[in-house]
Amino acid sequence: MRLYTTYGTNDLKRAIRFYDAIFAVLEQPRLPGWTKDSAGWGTEPDAGVGFWVCTPFDGSTASVGNGTMMAFPANSAAQVRQVHAAGLENGGTDEGAPGTRDRYAPDFYVAYLRDPDGNKLSCFYYHYDPAEDPGD
Questions:
Q1: Predicted local confidence at residue 110, as pLDDT
Q2: Strand, coil or helix: 103
Q3: Residue 8 burial class via C-beta count within 10 angstroms: exposed 0-12, middle 13-18, buried 19 and up
């Protein structure tokens, strides 16, 4: 399956700064083909997935969807913590500190953020073992 996802932004430079920090931790490069109105990260379009931010095509103000969230996989719980920290350092707001949650399986480690435009995102890691990684 090939897939891309887009969030709208009202300040592309600010969004690029935020997502450059997030995707640097996740080792996802900036995709080619970005314009003055958009930027993307991920893998080449023929090979996998991409994430894009852009100003809305209709010229209206970008808005946040209630119940809408993107979730990005990490390679470790430490990487989840790094993404969360990078997001906070680059204009994001906390929506849930890194850790496990009672509502999920005990090996599901996750953190939640909002980007500078208010879009919700998470970073998660399956197979978390607190004996191997007690956290920071």
A1: 97
A2: coil
A3: buried
- Domain that includes residue 33, residue range: 3-56+68-125
- 134 within some domain: no
Q: Over the stretch 42-76, which tens digit does the pLDDT of each residue have?
A: 876 666 678 989 999 888 999 998 888 999 999 99
Calpha distance 78→97 (Å, rounded): 13
Is residue 2 pLDDT above 70, yes or no? no
- 70 closest CA partner among 111, 16, 36, 29: 111
Task: Assess if residue 114 is contained within a domain.
Answer: yes
CATH code (residue 16): 3.10.180.10
135 touches 77 (CB < 8 A): yes
Total domains present in the chain? 1
